[in-house]
## 1
Amino acid sequence: MRNIRRRAIAAAGAAAIVTMTMGAGIARADHGSNGGSHANDDAYTIGLFGDVPYGAAGKVEYPNLIADMNKSNIRFSIFDGDLKAGGDGACTDQLYTQSLASFNSLKRPVVVVPGDNDWTDCWGRYGPGTGGFDALERLDHERQVFYPTDQSLGAHTLTVQRESSEPGYEKYRENVRWMSGPVMYIGLNVQGSNDNLPHAGVDGESRPASEIARMAEEHQQREKANIHWLAESYDQARRLGLKGVLVDWQADPNFNNEQKLQPAQYDGFTEIVPELRKQVIAFPGQSALVHGDSHYFKMDKPLNYDNGQVVEKFTRVETFGAANTHWVAATIDPRDPNLFEFSPRIVAANANSR
């Protein structure tokens, strides 16, 4: 969940186990329910969602969203973080076990990345009843619950490659990549709440200086891991001649300071965003960033070349969330020059339901 100022802005495999093949050290999700491989020029659709369920009403609506996704013909889905609203109580173990059960009720594979309400804010950013936990301990717990193996979540799973398989990055199990058709998918732990780079007095930050310093050190280490995984993954996509890359993380990175924030509210993204832009420009194919965090569905092209012209081969998509318990479908069509087509999927039972 974003801070108060940000919140003001908000207004295919079927039912058989998806088997994997490994190539160039990357997991593939290219096999259908009939046992035959999907050709690289076959179009397919995936689901994108996050920042749900929020509040009592969201908990009622969440099963409708899952049922809607289960009825669709998606190959897999990606959840871009936030298991609850910041004010929805403490980050107890039950939060993660209940969320795990919800993810595993999806018939097809779901890849999950963390959200700030899952760990960075669990110290009590949102007031009484929302704290009592160490943020880094909660992240470690989330890693144990959601990422114990090289399998995704879901009733049927897909195999992913985790950054933790590489020396020096053993704890970053949440950072993943896999391929489907001509597209590489990358999941990163990039968070709202300024990517866990706190500043005293900013966005409700009231912890002592020693704790702020400890979180800043975590941010710096994880940022290095994120940049390593992003660059390495794009390098592999280039070498394999893939047509597209889709990156998924939780944070709204405030491209071009579109939210008119103060520097201390978004300086946690001053390295990852330029690295993303660098990789996007160097990659000959299409790129997309999917994120949540601000709870406002949008699709735009916020990156520019040095000459001020738009980077035409990059698209940013923000999923629904908070009061809007819906999802986004992404169709990947290798015969389409744009490769990616995104469309909102409104869950009828959750429309105008409050």
## 2
Amino acid sequence: MSERLDESGIESTTVSIMRTSATVKGGRRFSFAALVVVGDRQGSIGLGHQKSGQVPQAIEKSQREAKRKLRKYPTTGSTIPHAVEGRFGACKVLLLPASPGTGVVAGAAVRAPLEMLGIRDCMTKCHGSTNTLNIVKAVFNGLEQLKSREDIEAARGRTLGHSDTEIQQKLDKPAPVSTEGDADAEPAETAEAPADAAANEATAS
């Protein structure tokens, strides 16, 4: 469940709360680590991972860190520009663009950063480690590999055609509903009503 941090439109979602304990002379001392992702759902997200003795303080520290690390990533409509594979440690996450209406096919750890980024259609697959922290960092590693059309054109020095993802986004985009025809039809029906009434009176007489 995401929460709004301020009026700038930045939202925060807590991916995981991890508890660790240390055995000391008087017993056990617990500490908590919070993994938080913040974003504006318009292409900018950041990751925060901080520890504290209390859960609220750990979340607050993670949110501050994530806001400092906010970064813009390229998107294409409601999906990503192309397929990428992010890696971190023993974890690999494959991110694939999808057509509108597919939704985000992913687990909680992968879904959180994609939704904060504003991605609504994407297919994913995780391989290797299932550690939540590793998965989220692998997703960010994959997002860092994304390149927009402008970046590729500047690197190659030439103009590119439309990619399959861009074509699919345009084809599946719903057409705007026009109300001009309905507005024109209503006066015509109104005009025909008096004519019908006059014809009926003439027949009766």
